[in-house]
Amino acid sequence: MLVTAHGELDACNAAQFTEYVHCCAAQCRRLILDLSGVEFFGTAGFSALHMISARCADADVSWTVVPSRAVSRVLQICDPDHLLPTVESVAETVAVAPADPWEQRRLLQLVSQPCEGFGEQA
């Protein structure tokens, strides 16, 4: 499954991003986070990636991140041991990962504006 984010990933939207990715990870066995369009990446975004990493490990989901320059800059400082799985492009991830005939392939895109009713309790 491919999740694409554009714009800013910071304290204002990192929790929504994490929740959305967790929902996606529950529906697949392989997850690609395309952050190549992220122009600003705060430390809350880095924390989100660590939470996503833990959730994927628990669910036995293989995952990778395609970082933008902004994301790479933060990862160089906060992940010097390269523990988070990164690749240069979505094409690289798809090329090296074996095809999974059981996985439904969909393109999902994170929208940073809140949707009506999202997260509201009934």
TrEMBL record:
Which Pfam families does the protein's record reference? STAS (PF01740)
Signal peptide residues on this chain, from the entry's feature table: none
Q: Which InterPro entries does the record match to this protein?
A: STAS_dom, STAS_dom_sf
- What range(s) does the STAS domain occupy? 1-49
Xref: CDD domains: STAS_anti-anti-sigma_factors
Please indicate which superkingdom the organism of origin belongs to: Bacteria
- Quote the protein name from its UniProt record: STAS domain-containing protein
